[in-house]
Amino acid sequence: MHLTLTVNGTEHALDLDPRTSLLDMLRDHLDLTGSKKGCDHGQCGACTVLLNGRRINSCLSLAVMHEGDEITTIEGLGEEGKLSPLQAAFVAHDGYQCGYCTPGQICSATAMLGEVEAGWPSHVSDNLEDQPQLTDAEISERMSGNLCRCSAYPNIVDAISEVGGGRK
Amino acid sequence: MDVNFKMDKPVERSLLDTTNQNIISRPLDRIEGPLKVSGRAKYSAEFKLPNMAHGVLVGAAIGKGRVKEIDVKSVEALPGVLMVVTDTEKFLRNPAQGMDTEAPKQGVTSIDYFGQPIALVVAETFEAARNAANALSVTYEDAEGRFDFDARIDTAKPKKDSEKNQGDVDDAMRSAHANVDAKWTTPSQSSAAMEPHASLAHWEGQKLVLYGSYQMLSSNRLQLADAMGLDPEDVRILAHYVGGGFGAKLGIGPESVAAAVAAKDLGRPVRVVMTRQQVFEATVRRSNTVQHLQLAADAEGRLTGVSHETITGNLEGEDFSEPASAATQFLYSGANRRFGNEIVLMDQVLAGSMRAPGEAVGMLALEGAMDELAELLDVDPVELRKRNIPERHPTSDLPFSSRSLAECLEIGARDFGWSKRKSAPASTLEGEWWIGHGMATAARSNMLIKSSARVTLQPDGRALVETDMTDIGTGTYTILAQIAAELLGLPIDAVDIHLGDTNFPPASGSGGSFGAASAGTSVYLACEKLRQTIAEKLGGEVEDLVLSDGMARMGNTSEPLSELIAEPLEATATVEPGETGKAFVQAGFGAHFAEVAVHAHTGEVRVRRMEGTFAAGRILNEKTAISQCFGGMVFGIGTALTEDMMHDHRYGHIVNRDLAEYHLPVNADVPQLKVKFLEERDHAANPLLAKGIGELGISGAGAAIANAIYNACGVRVRDYPITLDKLIDHLPDPKGL
């Protein structure tokens, strides 16, 4: 099937097998292997990308559902020499080890900070009305869809907290 | 210029304590960090070769029996399908064990466990291959499977040479002032590294090149060569980045041979990536264990007897048995001692090494038993452990190379605020939560493994390190750069590290916490040799040479390295274990302290605080070492509370074979952990004076949580993981408080 979409600011016209997931489209057809495949079932979060600014598991979405959409992958957030604030903070705080879940963590955190700013409550928020604060508990809760077997969680929380101004 | 060094006697003085580049040990950022955080670090499945085809493995849908027929025709006509590979002789029944130098059992006509790979479907695209793999029609002949461990436990057979007896434990137990005599059980576990096993194979004539997600390339090369009937020289394996291993990628897996066979038959590169389900079903697990622990103590709380006997399961023809008593054998005193392992033959996925094989689950039992003994004796748990630190190895009488265990216990207790703990269980209720505190010792044996590296000083003043060592998240890239930069007096960004290619000198690989020390020593030795050559060029003694910030100084002469070196200056060095490995007991030590909350009505457990204090010789990079300990401690949280790979007793399949049902700790399960390292040097370990750190953090971690749960609510669970169903019926009535 024919598909036109924008990835990291570049428009792509593709002819794809309708069974191709958004993740496999990125990895196999656009050579954007920064988005990782850890489970292919939406259970680990390694494939997290931004779809029109919102975080999604790209393995759970078929590419052909995204006609006209704007996708941002980890490659679109920054690169060596011009890392995004979160990317730089993950390096500084050692918010990773093997690095395989890392792109998903950073894409997820990028969108998550926006969700907090927009006032979305979470399971650990005090109530549904007030502006949630970026506490460690809020970060941990909101980042629990991204597994890290190397278990860099404390450092991931530090990195996100620093960028989001959590511990003022 | 080759250097060969055998660790035959303690190293009195390490060069790392004499140089002044101020790079070693510092908490520097990972040098490959920017590549990882920007998605540019390439893992095995991410290389794209021209004309590459995609393979998807097909696993057996029965747990025991025989393949009668694979109906290749059932999928051949599907669009995009190129071939179905059914090499019943070459395919691996199961992965190789770590450090094996030969292929594991080959041949897949008979089915020995559910999910055993029996065929590979290859197609033009991944989508076509996946579809055809699902559609492939296979007929089986079922056989009676050995799937129920508990029902078969009486058939356990002793593991060869595992039995050790000293004195009379039974008599010690009878005459003890207090004793503990109980069984602990731990379930099967999966390493569950985030990157699934992957191999991309292609042939250059008769030579096989494989991008493989593996931990130990030099032995992986031998395994793969043997499996394919090739000369090892004709096999090249590359693994620049590995998305975690934790033991599951120590030996080659079924996907490697399947990819190699398919690539050969097809004359095209073939990529095979395991599905997450296949990683659970057809790689390697930590065996479930039943551990019988006996401790006998006198009235002063001194151990008089220690017994630790373990029963595990494994496939026919495999003799690995989780060495759960590994640390028990040297950690505490006691004149009467008994250890042994038995294996129950099971038709279940291979059991092998997972992070800290032995200590990881063995210390759950030992440190749980010590907690129970402390209570019986009315002695503080920290004090009981300190009282039983043996002067020398309780059996061999060998000295310890370095051991800051008492200091770790004392400092850890002080930092944690242990003295404020209430020793009576169920003493503190906060709202609906019982609060408790627990501790455990950490101990993990230290090893040195043969390892080689080549270091080249370039005329432009840069250094290049080459070795087939891997970085599986352990920090290898960075610590090797730190060692080379420190010893050659270079800024760290003047050092290039090339890893993960068997074309480079063979390294120890990543496993058993020996990678940093072993590969690091080879780099140290090569740099030492280069320093000598530089001194000679300057016409002086190496003792008088100072290398700093790219300058070589000797007396009053000072010259930039880049001007001193006209041609690339190269040294290859190999380190081998020697006499110090036999003359000393070598291990890292530490202490875990944990605070948990147990919900008074549901039994839900939350870890609120967890602190580890460790000593493991010189710390090569404080930042990456802390991360390694965090990782181990979080494995401990998973072990204590959630991880349980369940085997179906009727059909042999793994019930929870994915990341939704096999519960790794998630971010919300982990509090802000604290790790502290004590200053230590181990002169018998290696010239770096460093010991392994990758597995120390997990050893004992789960026990500290279990002991804290008991302290919180008074329920002692010896059957891991401690899920709420095991607590809820026994929780105390909170109304009393």
From TrEMBL, chain A:
Record keyword Acetylation present = no
Q: Which UniProt keywords apply?
A: 2Fe-2S, Iron, Iron-sulfur, Metal-binding, Oxidoreductase
GO molecular function term, any single one: 2 iron, 2 sulfur cluster binding
Q: Which residues form the 2Fe-2S ferredoxin-type domain?
A: 1-77
Is the keyword rRNA-binding assigned to this protein? Answer: no
List the InterPro entries hit by this protein, alphabetically: 2Fe-2S-bd (IPR002888), 2Fe-2S-bd_dom_sf (IPR036884), 2Fe-2S_ferredoxin-like_sf (IPR036010), 2Fe-2S_ferredoxin-type (IPR001041), 2Fe2S_fd_BS (IPR006058), Aldehyde_Oxdr_Iron-Sulfur (IPR052914), Beta-grasp_dom_sf (IPR012675)
Which CDD domains does this chain map to? fer2
Q: What is this protein called?
A: Xanthine dehydrogenase YagT iron-sulfur-binding subunit
Gene source species: Pelagibacterium luteolum
TrEMBL record, chain B:
Protein name as annotated: Xanthine dehydrogenase YagR molybdenum-binding subunit
Report the Gene3D superfamilies cross-referenced here: Aldehyde oxidase/xanthine dehydrogenase, a/b hammerhead (3.90.1170.50), Aldehyde oxidase/xanthine dehydrogenase, molybdopterin binding domain (3.30.365.10)
The GO molecular function terms of this record are: iron ion binding; oxidoreductase activity
**Which residues are in the Aldehyde oxidase/xanthine dehydrogenase a/b hammerhead domain?**
38-144
Organism, by scientific name, is Pelagibacterium luteolum
Q: Which domain of life is it from?
A: Bacteria
